[in-house]
Prior knowledge:
Layout: H1 9-17, E1 25-33, H2 35-46, H3 53-67, E2 73-76, E3 79-82, E4 88-94, E5 99-105, H4 113-129, H5 133-144, H6 147-163, E6 181-185, E7 206-210, E8 214-220, E9 223-237, H7 243-258, H8 279-286, E10 304-305, E11 312-313
Parallel strand pairs: 4-6, 6-7
Antiparallel strand pairs: 1-9, 2-3, 4-5, 7-9, 8-9, 10-11
Helix pairs in contact: 1-6, 3-4, 3-7
Amino acid sequence: MTGVAKLGGWRKIAGAMWGPPDDPQVYGILDFDASPLLRLIERGRAAGYPVTPTHLVGRAVAHALHEVPDFNVRIRGSKVIPRETVDVFFIAAVEGGKELSGVKVERADDKSVFEVARELRERAGHMKRGDDKEFAKTKRNIARMPRRFLRPSMRFSSWLTNSRNRDVKSLGVTKQPFGSAMITSIGMFGIPQGFAPLARFYGMPLLVLVGEIMDKPMAVDGQVVIRPVISLTATIDHRYADGWHISQLIKPFRAYLTDPAPFEPDPAALEGAAPVGSDAEARSEAGERVAGVPHPDEPGRGDTLVDGGPAFSTRLPAEPTAPTLGQ
């Protein structure tokens, strides 16, 4: 790169959001055997409802916040105010992945993962096509505003939308724009693990990054086996929670991701799904790369696939069975 260029897009926003690091952020990592997730993804895709690990992690967060309402709060001065609903914000890539935006799914704890995936696909599609009026308005306002005014205007809008719980129509920003928690995928870019910072204007306590699913050794019943593993990293605002709150949140979160099928309807029994055959069709329908999840009728299950990122095995372990006498 030569010469001096002006900051634009997300980097311009980031410069207005952050100063020197002094915010109370807590970081954590959890690894999960992704086999149950992949089985549900495969069943959903076979029934015409393609979902991705990011959708499932978002549903797990929504379920956990529903079960631990002490975490589903907003802060106003010295007051902690319960939120009326569990809303999860999914970060989405637009303009060919060069820019970031997002979609807030309201009442995500009351929706199935298949409903969440469909809503995200439809709403993110509007943004990518440029026909989302509110997103376009916000983007225009940011592009036109000088950087020296961007930081104070963002802080003021954050105070109005989060602390005062009001819309800022002039900027195209609605109240509580980021909801209860935020989810973003880095696995779709072939990144196994990473962390992200919370910003002042988010007004919520939890940001979860979904890494790429990769084959790793795991200890199962006292033996080392190779399983597809998904790595999740979280950034938590310490003002909202201490270690006890976090430990309580992890319990329902872990329960969902350990076996998500009981928390979701049978996709084969749902109505209104369109047939999804190829991986390209599934990717378009889900709004995200569906790598490593072959259609049941496709050949080569158990082979290594490359789809826009590093290769990883799609081999799934057999469904768990009850032990028999003598085992």
